[in-house]
Amino acid sequence: MKRDKFIVSILAASAFPVSAKSSIENENSRTDKGFKVKAGEGRIHGHIKLKGVNSNILDVKISGKDTNGGFAMFEQTSLSQGRGTPLHIHPLQDETFYVVEGEYYFQIGEDKFRLSIGDSIFLPKKVPHAWTQVSEKGRMIVVFQPAGKMEEFFVTVSALNHEPTPEEMAKIFIDNEMQVVGPPLKIE
After folding, report:
1. 48 near 59, Cβ under 8 Å?
2. String of DSSP letters for 127-156
3. Mean pLDDT of 94-116
4. What would the pLDDT profile of 61-82 be if each residue is shown by its tens digit?
5. Which carries the bigger pLDDT value, residue 180 or residue 50?
């Protein structure tokens, strides 16, 4: 019996340094210095040109790497009038949009909203949502909390050498912790 307790205590003690090291490494990946990102620039990847859902441009302003995954912020330049996202779910992330230029149409659950300059909207995790660009051009600030795999999603779709099929996009969504649950939102 004493031997069993000894083995359990040794195993527990040996696990501590591993978890402590992991925590230290994660904390070290977070930036400890403020920074500025100029207008019209992306912090890490430059301009991320999307394919598939729309052909908008995303600039990473604050990466999840900067916040240890706490949140990420992007500026989206919208160039795809009449196009937007399919109805989808983020099971792990809340999303916030702030419209800087143009007009957009959003759906959250069954509710639909028109947004224009200065408007913001909150999309809670686990609730189906979609949006479509109404105006010819537009810009939004988009925040994901926690950051999740959104940056990886945007980089993946921009690296494609072709326009992906809806089936390919659905798989990319799943690979990046999202799920397509319906068609794109039509402007009413």
Report:
1. yes
2. S-EEEEE-SSSEEEEEEEES-TTHHHHHHH
3. 97
4. 999 999 999 999 999 999 889 9
5. 180
Q: Rounded to whole angstroms, how far apart are CA atoms 28 and 21?
A: 10
Instruction: Write down the architecture of domain 47-184 according to CATH.
Output: Sandwich (2.60)
Q: Of the ranges 38-47, 65-74, 151-160, 175-184, which one carries the lowest mean pLDDT score? A: 38-47
Angstrom CA distances, 23 to 28, 69, 138, stand at: 9, 13, 40
Amino acid type, 69 = G
Could you give the C-alpha distances from 69 to 42, 48, 186, in angstroms and in order? 18, 20, 33
Find all residues with CB under 8 Å of 113, minimum gap 6, and list them.
105, 106, 107, 121
Segments making up each domain of the chain, as ranges:
1-30, 47-184
Structure-derived torsion over alpha carbons of residues 145, 149, 155, 158, reported in degrees to the nearest 10:
-90
84: DSSP letter = B
